[in-house]
Amino acid sequence: MAAEKILTSPIGSPSRDKELDQFLPIANVSWIMKKSLPTNAKISKEAKETVQTCISEFISFITGEASDKCQREEEDDQRRRSSMGYENPGV
């Protein structure tokens, strides 16, 4: 699991910093989870880490899909301008 790798990586190492950038802060995940549950509910560390991983994977997936769509639309716009005789403005 990626969370275990983070915990065992040396502090300050480039790989640890990069991995931490890929996850939402666990405190934020915990806060959102607590808001959604009854006040007396307990949340295990493993549950928080699992939700953190799932949320981060979901955001990564959505971001990738949005990036792909933007790329396709840019190519479509360029093709449309070209077919209408417009030159690329040098952007």
Automatic annotation (TrEMBL):
A GO cellular component annotation in the UniProt record: CCAAT-binding factor complex
UniProt biased composition (Basic and acidic residues): 68-80
One Pfam entry name: CBFD_NFYB_HMF
UniProt GO MF annotations: DNA-binding transcription activator activity, RNA polymerase II-specific; protein heterodimerization activity; RNA polymerase II cis-regulatory region sequence-specific DNA binding
Superkingdom classification of source: Eukaryota
Transmembrane segments: none
CDD domains: HFD_NFYB
SUPFAM superfamilies: Histone-fold
Keywords, ordered alphabetically: Transcription, Transcription regulation
Domain Transcription factor CBF/NF-Y/archaeal histone stretches: 23-74
Disordered: annotated segments: 68-91
PANTHER family: CCAAT-BINDING TRANSCRIPTION FACTOR-RELATED, NUCLEAR TRANSCRIPTION FACTOR Y SUBUNIT B-11
Family statement drawn from the similarity comment of this UniProt entry: Belongs to the NFYB/HAP3 subunit family.
Name the record gives this protein: Transcription factor CBF/NF-Y/archaeal histone domain-containing protein
